Amino acid sequence: MALIAPSLLASDFLHLEDACKMINESDADWFHLDVMDGRFVPNISFGIPVIEHIRRATKKVCDVHLMIEEPEKLTPAFKKAGADILIVHMETCRNLHSNIQQIKALGMKPAVAINPHTPVEFLKDILEDLYHVLIMTVNPGFGGQSFIPHSLEKVQEMKKMILKIGKNILIEVDGGITLDNAPALVEAGADILVAGSSIFQAKDPKEIIRLLKRIA
Length: 216
Known about the structure:
By secondary structure, the chain is an alpha/beta fold. The protein is built from 8 helices and 8 strands. It has an 8-stranded parallel β-sheet. The relative contact order is 0.17.
């Protein structure tokens, strides 16, 4: 059964407390928190102070996705803020192995994200050090984008790589996830579904989460 991680990026920032309460009361497994710096991606979202407050509002896993340049400079601060999992982008890390070791040393679970244009094979030499891999199924930076169909093949390729090394490494997918494409993604090998707009723009977000969980 796949894990469901609602993305707060798609929520109403004026009512974050209500969004946290909804996720806490739902069948969701994780909070997915997107941090954007306006450099690596053309948008700015929220940062450490907001995550600190979210951490105090939930006992569920905080899955923090850093879409930022030089993540190593802020990694300790995100640990202090309450991140359980810290995701860095392969495209922003000059010394990816060092980034991963830093995350581990601070007591967080490490994950690496790859953009739609980045081949999964690029993760071959770092894969065994990861808790999970995040395959972006849209270009990072904005919510509400349409799912890129080729992403299914990338999930399948990543699953084969993981099975080959015999490790329990999870596959997360993020971007344009809906009730329509979730079954195919899970069948392809996805373990974690990040959903934003399809949840927060629904009349009944809890019901969408329940249905995603049932599909998974």
